[in-house]
Structures are given as structure tokens and as C-alpha cells.
Write a structure and sequence with these properties.
With 477 residues, this protein is α+β, with helices and mostly antiparallel strands. It is built from 14 helices and 18 strands. The strands form six sheets. A six-stranded antiparallel β-sheet has the order 8-7-18-17-16-15, sandwiched between helices.
Length: 477
Amino acid sequence: MTNPWPRTLGTLLIVFAGSTPVWSQATGKATQLPNTPAEGQFRAWLSAFNQGDRTALLKFFNDNYPSEVGRIDRDMNFRAGTGGFDFRQAVSATATEFTALVQERGSDQFARAVVTVEPNEPHHILSLGLRAIPRPPEFAIPRLTEAELVTQLGSKLNEDAKKGLFSGTVLVAHQGKSVFSGAYGLANRETAEPNKLTTRFRMGSMNKMFTATAIMQLVQAGKIKLDDPLGKFLTDYPNKDVASKVTIHHLLTHTGGTGDIFGPEFDSHRLQLRTLNDYIKLYGSRGLAFEPGKQWDYSNYGFILLGAIVEKVSGQSYYDYVRDHIFTPAGMTRTASEPEDVAVPDRAIGYMTDGDSSKPNTETLPYRGTSAGGGYTTVEDLLRFANALTEHRLLNEHYTELLTTAKPETGDAHYAYGFQDNVVRGVRSFGHGGGAPGMNGDLRIFPQTGYVVVALANMDRGAQRESSWISERLPAK
């Protein structure tokens, strides 16, 4: 199976009126799709995949798709994360190629599936690809009332938890107050400790919101300018080309060409990287991946540098600064980034998919969360952060707007400064997601309607799927 779940903004060129007849926009006529070898192989694969049984899927690959046998672990991980797919519509069919729309079970995500087969019997599969697409307009989801949403959401989360599709906490608030909250699954499977609303979950890249807020506080105070080069503050930065060309704005928008931190170097130094300066010692001599401002490329290292700038300008460690200037003013008492070897009460163990089972993510964790990601929080603390931000207790109105409004000219239509700025069916939201092996989270703030959606999970997926489901159905007013 090729490229499981790459994201795309592609649109369908043909729309369909039913599961068998196909409606062509070009001719304005409906035609009947024939049963073909490619369609038969697609349906057989979908049946085997949806079973979630490794032996059954491996047998199907051996008999019909031999080239995929060596990727069975990846495919089982994909099955565990999605829960399988439901067939929605046929798109086109020839003897050797079949295209269909499918929907991820337990979520609203659609995908375009394309299977090609050999022309001669037994018609072995040559390729089978799934590409995520925006939900087609003919499958639009009706908005719910708040009461309907609460009822349906409770049922969905209970069902998803039973199926192993979600383990974590979810909170929905309106005008600053919770209208729904719940905890599901286990924080520690060995001791059977359940997740609670007070459980601390690792949050991955959601921490970028705090880093960007900290930088903007220093901008508001006149201590930093957005067009300042990073070398103005990190005066001994090893690569002088990077230091002189990359600005604060570039770092905040992932347009600096500063690259990432993950890969072989990180893996071999994972437990030795204890401070932000340790990361700079490891990566600071590296050159630019591209000329700053010329393209968009998500850069965790860029946010490491922002954290180091916070330290230099404020005179505090990054961790002390965000505690004193963000967490404490917002009332976030259960959010921090203590090292992994420090015992933290109620911190959930993350479980990552491993074939058709799962295991703790302990061996993948850094020594400590950084300004790029990591640390831990609760859904209630993230609501407090959202409230403090929208009530302008962290930044004034001007800088809050600057922080959270997308900068499309940078190359990503939805990225602001450490926040993602999206419009869901005409309703704007801003926030940030986070994900890594054994952790997943999402915060969405809807300024027009006053809703806030928060989800945290101690598994690879789930939180962002649930927050998307909620966002699609929230009242629009």
C-alpha cells in the first residue's frame, strides 16, 4: 500500500449520485460502472484490512499483493490508527484500475483510494494508494445544537474507547465554561489506572503556542523586534550566515530554513540533549536549507532557537519564563516540562502502535520537553490558557491578533506565529496540534462563537480525530 495517509488539498473532478452509478460533470449523464478485476481486488483488500487480523491480511497480501508482504507491520499500524475504512462511492473503473471514496471509521476523514492490477489472471495488485482529501460537499455534515452535540459526543467517545481508537480526555467549553468533559481509557495499563480530567498528558508540538506567546510578550514589551536577526541575541551562534539572515519572524513562521532536530543525530544523542544550548551545540554549525523567507518548512529547531532567545532576553530559563509569565497568570497549575526521570504525579504513560499491538513510548522520549515541543498538560489547563489568551491577560488585543492570525504570504495558508489558523465550514478557529509516538493532542479556539475544543491522548492518534469531529458539528453561532 503506497503512502498511507499523506495529506493533500486535491479536489475530485467527478461527483457521484450513488454507490454504483457515476455522474460526470463533463457529460451531465449517469453511467453504470462495470464489475472489474480491479474493483474486485479493492473490495477484497478492504474486507481483509478492516478485519484488523494480521494473519488474514498477510494471507491476502501473499495471495494478491506479494510486494506488500514486507510492509505488513506498517499496514497493521495504519489499521490500528484508523480503525479501518468504510466504502462510500465508486469514482471510476477499468479492467486494471479502480478508484473509490472511502471514509475513516470513527472520524470524518475521507480518502481517495486507487488500486491498479495486472491485466492477466490472477490480477495481482500492482499498487494500492490512499490519499486523504477534504470532505466532498455532497457529504456535508449538519451542524448540531449544543445539547445534541453533548449527547452524540459522549456516545462516540465511549464507543471509540471500547474499540481502542481513543484513550485520553476531551473538553468542550463555551464562553469560558465547560459544557462537556470526559476521560476515557487507561493512564497506566500495567496498573489499570484510569485516565482522569486531571491526568497530565504529553503534548508534543502544542508547546509551540507557549513559546510563540512568550516571544510576542517580549515583542510587546519592546525587547524584541520581529525583523531582528537571531544573531542579535545569540551573539555566539556558530553559523554566522544563519545568525545574520534568519529573523524572529522567520523562526515563528517556519520560513527560516533552519531544519529539523529529528533523525540519526537526535536518536544517538537523545538523552544527552538536556538544555536548549545542547541542541544548539549539536545543530548550530549546520547551514541553511534554503534562503530565509523563500519557502515554508516546519522547523522544530527554529522553535528551539526561539526558546534560547527567550532565555537570553529575559534572563530566565525558558521553563521558568513560561511558568512565571504564561502558566501562573493563566492559572495553569498542572502544566510543566520536568525531565522524564523526575516523578510527576498523574503523568500518563504514552502507548505507541507496534504492529497489531502497542508498547510504552519510553525509549523514544527526549530527556526533557523543549520550546519546540514536549512537556505535559491537562485539558482543563489548556482551557485556562485559551481563556487567558482570548481575555487578553497574556497579551493585549493587537499582539494577540498578530500572534494567532495566519501569515499566508509565508507559504502556508494556515500558519500564524506558533498557532494554526483555520476556517472550518465558514467558522474560524486557531490553536495547535501535537503528535509523536504515544501522544496526540489538539486545541482549537473559535473566537466567533466562543467555543473551545481540547483533546489529549496517550496514544499515537485519536485526539485530533475527536477534535475534528467536534469542530465539524459545533453550532456556528
